[in-house]
């Protein structure tokens, strides 16, 4: 029995994609925190996005995030606060949700072509953290902030300043994701795809 389908993604890949999509959904069970500055809550789900890219690599990490986006689009309450449905994409958090997919892709690409070439525990951990910052924060914000501006009627500068409120927490998530990804890679070296 073959574990590869015609698309080049095998059974093991599908299981890992589904597992990380489930991790992202599970992190959404932690209630969101609304700050009132912008209509976007603080959630732990971006931690899952960073981990998906860092552990699975660019393709599988992006596919795990795309699966969560698909489940959201069909109406399942998989986002923090039990949100789901196509309306989420039209609301202020829609850009961030869409940004998860290229965010995980960028994290995975940086891990695949840079971080895994680094030597030493601290160098690799710092590399994972930097990859998570680049993909899980910068790329996600590149999608999220402009859409927040459009959907909420805020000026782009106001949306950007409002989004900066989330940076300290996201940096903590990036460090945590870097530590976890390094630990997972040492304990269970998953091929990066």
Please tag this protein with its features.
single chain, 193 residues, mainly alpha, Arp2/3 complex 21 kDa subunit ARPC3, 8 helices, 0% strand
Explain what the structure shows.
The chain is mainly alpha-helical and 193 residues long. Helix content is 67%, strand content 0%. The chain has a single domain, classed as Arp2/3 complex 21 kDa subunit ARPC3. The protein has helices spanning 11-27, 45-56, 58-73, 87-90, 94-113, 121-152, 156-163, 167-187.
- Contiguous low-pLDDT stretches (5 residues minimum) are none
Helix percentage: 55-70%
CATH class: Mainly Alpha
The total beta strand count reads: 0
Named CATH topology: Arp2/3 complex 21 kDa subunit ARPC3
Q: Output the structural class.
A: mainly alpha
What order do the SSEs take from the amino end to the carboxyl end, as H and E? HHHHHHHH
What share of residues are in beta strands? under 5%
Largest sheet: none
Shape call: globular
Determine the N-to-C terminus distance: 22 Å
Assembly state: single chain
| Rounded average pLDDT | 92
Radius of gyration over all CA atoms, rounded: 16 Å
**How many separate structural domains?**
1
The CATH architecture would be: Orthogonal Bundle
Instruction: Quickly count the helices.
Output: 8
């Amino acid at each position: 029995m073959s574990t590869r389908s015609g698309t080049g993604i095998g059974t093991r890949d599908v299981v890992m994609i589904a597992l990380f999509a489930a991790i992202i959904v599970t992190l959404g069970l932690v209630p969101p925190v609304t700050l009132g500055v912008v209509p976007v809550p603080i959630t732990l789900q971006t931690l899952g996005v960073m981990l998906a890219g860092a552990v699975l690599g660019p393709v599988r990490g992006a596919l795990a995030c795309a699966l969560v986006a698909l489940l959201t689009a069909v109406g399942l309450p998989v986002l923090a606060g039990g949100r789901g449905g196509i309306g989420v994409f039209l609301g202020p958090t829609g850009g961030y949700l869409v940004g998860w997919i290229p965010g995980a892709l960028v994290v995975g690409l940086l891990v695949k072509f840079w971080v895994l070439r680094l030597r030493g525990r601290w160098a690799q951990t710092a590399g994972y953290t930097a990859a998570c910052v680049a993909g899980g924060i910068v790329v996600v914000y590149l999608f999220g902030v402009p859409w927040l501006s459009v959907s909420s009627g805020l000026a782009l500068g106001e949306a950007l300043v409002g989004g900066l409120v989330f940076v300290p927490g996201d940096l903590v998530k990036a460090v945590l994701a870097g530590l976890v990804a390094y630990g997972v890679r040492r304990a269970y070296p998953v091929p990066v795809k």
